[in-house]
Design brief:
The chain is mostly beta strands and about 100 residues long. It has one domain. The chain is built from no helices and 10 strands. The strands form 3 sheets. Strands 2-1-5-6 form a 4-stranded antiparallel sheet, with no helix packed on it. Strands 3-10-7-4 form a 4-stranded antiparallel sheet, with no helix packed on it. Strand 8 and strand 9 form a beta hairpin. Part of the 50S ribosomal subunit. Contacts protein L20.
Length: about 100
């Protein structure tokens, strides 16, 4: 059984037992999080697709940790102008462990 969920403006395909890193959520480590924006649910034989969300479906996950991704380097250079701009960015994330999918 798997589900397609939406969180943080992105879509993820999840199954029970999966670990995934999503955009930062405001939740404590070890707490349960219910993700109610379920776009599709499949039990292996049948696929339920929502319009836009599946009615009554939810995914329960546990917050494993919070952290920051690796640094992404931004480098801009204008040739022949003696102009260089360099920066970096680290995005925050929340790591979730999917416990169950309720259809």
């Amino acid at each position: 059984m798997y589900a397609i969920i939406k969180t943080g403006g992105k879509q993820y395909r999840v199954a029970a037992g999966d670990k995934l890193k999503v955009e930062s959520l405001n939740a404590e480590v070890g707490s349960q999080v219910t993700l109610s924006e379920v776009l599709a649910v499949s039990d292996g034989n049948e696929l339920k697709v929502g319009a836009p969300f599946v009615e009554g479906a939810s995914v329960t996950a546990t917050v494993v940790s919070h952290g920051r991704h690796d640094k992404v380097r931004i480098f801009k250079m204008r040739r022949r102008k003696h102009s260089i701009k360099s920066a970096g960015h680290r995005q925050n994330y929340t790591e979730l462990k999917i416990e169950s999918i309720a259809a």
